[in-house]
Amino acid sequence: MRRRTFIVGAGAAAAGGAWARDIDAPLPRGKGRSGLKTGVLDGIPSFCSHEHWGSIDAIGMLPEGFRADVECGALPNRTADIFDLVLDPYFRGQLASSGDDVERLPRPSGLSNFRAWAAKAPEDAFKALEPIVERHVGTGTFQCIRLGVQTLYGEDLADWAQVRVGVLNRAIAERYGQLFDWYDEVRKRVRFSAVIRPVHPEFYWRDASPATAERERARYRTVVRIDPLLDLWPTPCARRDALVGMTGIDPVDAGSWRAFLARIMDVAAEHGAVGIKQLQAYGRALDFVPREDSEVRFRGALSQDEVRAFEDWVVHACCQLADARGWPHQIHVGTHNLPHSSPLPLAELAKRYPRMKLVLLHNWPFIKESGWLARQHANVYLDTCWLPVLDPAFYREAMNAWVGYVPSHKITCGHDATSIEMATGSAMFVRGILAEVLEAHARENHLPASCIERWATGFMHDNAVALYGVGQRA
User: Would you say 385 and 21 are in contact if contact means Cβ atoms under 8 Å apart?
Assistant: First the structure.
């Protein structure tokens, strides 16, 4: 393996003018305008194992979800701007849930919503955000957006009053107007390697255009979201009917449901899918009970217990397909629906489907429970994605807990970002905090630099390459 410099305590400064800049140039060193020390693991690529790039208002929504996750090759429907990056689903949701809903801000008469204000008078709308944003400046979500914008556009959102809104909007509009070229530049510059995106089943049939779909498929791999399939039991159900038209199979009983699911997985695989994903932890516990076909009603006005049985059956049917393919299964753990989103019930899935690798996403606050599962079960893995966005301290907590307890090949470090700018900020936190954690571990345990280098390369890149079969080891 090529030797790399293991640098602790170096800073990654903000860089301006990224669009015209030599993209082969390394990330800048030294203390940036942010003052944040972000130890750089020089030269190690970052495998983006779970990303939502494109989940912004400029690209838009469809009834099934974010358009970027439903239509392959989706481009912005309108000119993108700084409000799309700052008021992304994560930060805007954080503002609203804490009582700082931007739609409650007083705005000029005749403007139906905040977006209309941002379009008509962006400087005024931006200024109006300052009092509520100020209360959230220290949060991981804002800091990841801020560091990404600072690094890629040269504007520091922490210095809100000094941001050149017009200059920034023009730069974002230019880059998002050439979206895939912009992604290519940032990936090379920030050292992002492979990218895996969770997408809805419809994504494999719907192309925004043949040309843009081809560009997306050439750049990214996907995992199939199975969570929407658990909602296809009502009568009528427009989404199920649309999928029937795509697959050619109407799922009315156990046999046709298996064929329906197999068809979705087959088409997904043909389009480069490498696994499945679910986020049922947002709304229910992760105790998926095996169900006999005779226990399940597959359509109609189901009772609460019948819905639960249907959900259990669909999850196990999808796990059977993933197990047969040897596909990983990404599962959202923790962060919401507490305390019912504990990963501990997933031990039964791990034992029942040994060829299916369970990848536990996020995991906070169940850091110890998730670590125990990964240590005790050969097919359970951990991904720290989203932790820096929630709070960099959560990422530090997880890595401090796992490095001394979990086998080193079981940990990956994705970003779970809604934009490539947010992913850039997350990657800066990952590099800095990981450097600190590994340096401390090496010092306490008298480990050679070569060992720490292997671990860092594994966490950031090589473990995901082995897990998903995408890309090459660094």
Answer: no
Taking the C-alpha atoms of residue 80 and residue 175, their distance in angstroms, rounded to an integer, is 9
65 φ/ψ sector (left φ>0, alpha ψ -120 to 50, else beta): left
Sheet order of strands, 329-333 included: 46-48, 192-199, 221-225, 273-278, 329-333, 358-362, 380-383, 411-412
Cα torsion angle, 41, 47, 52, 54, sign: positive
DSSP E strand boundaries for 180-265: 192-199, 221-225
Per-residue tens of pLDDT for the chain, all 474 residues: 333 333 332 233 333 333 333 333 344 333 333 333 334 477 899 999 999 999 999 999 999 999 999 999 999 999 999 999 999 999 999 999 999 999 999 999 999 999 999 999 999 999 999 999 999 999 999 999 999 999 999 999 999 999 999 999 999 999 999 999 999 999 999 999 999 999 999 999 999 999 999 999 999 999 999 999 999 999 999 999 999 999 999 999 999 999 999 999 999 999 999 999 999 999 999 999 999 999 999 999 999 999 999 999 999 999 999 999 999 999 999 999 999 999 999 999 999 999 999 999 999 999 999 999 999 999 999 999 999 999 999 999 999 999 999 999 999 999 999 999 999 999 999 999 999 999 999 999 888 888 888 999 999 999 999 999 999 998
Q: What is the DSSP letter of 298?
A: -
C-alpha span between 154 and 163 (Å, rounded): 10
pTM of this structure: 0.90
Q: What is the DSSP letter of 396?
A: H
Query: What SS3 class is residue 356?
Result: coil
Provide the strand spans (E) within 73-186: none
Beta-ladder partners of 66 = 61
CA angle, 174 as apex, 199 and 68 as ends, to 5°? 10
| Signed CA dihedral, 71, 74, 80, 83: sign only | positive
Helix ranges (H only) for 2-134 are: 82-86, 89-97, 114-120, 122-134
Q: What is the largest CA-CA distance in the chain?
A: 67
Tokens matching residue 178: 């050439």
Residue 119 makes CB contacts below 8 A (sequence gap 6+) with: none
300, amino acid identity: G
| CA 100/CA 80 separation, integer angstroms | 23
Residue 266: count of CB within 10 angstroms of its CB: 14
Domains of the chain, with CATH numbers? 46-55+192-468 (3.20.20.140), 80-176 (no CATH)
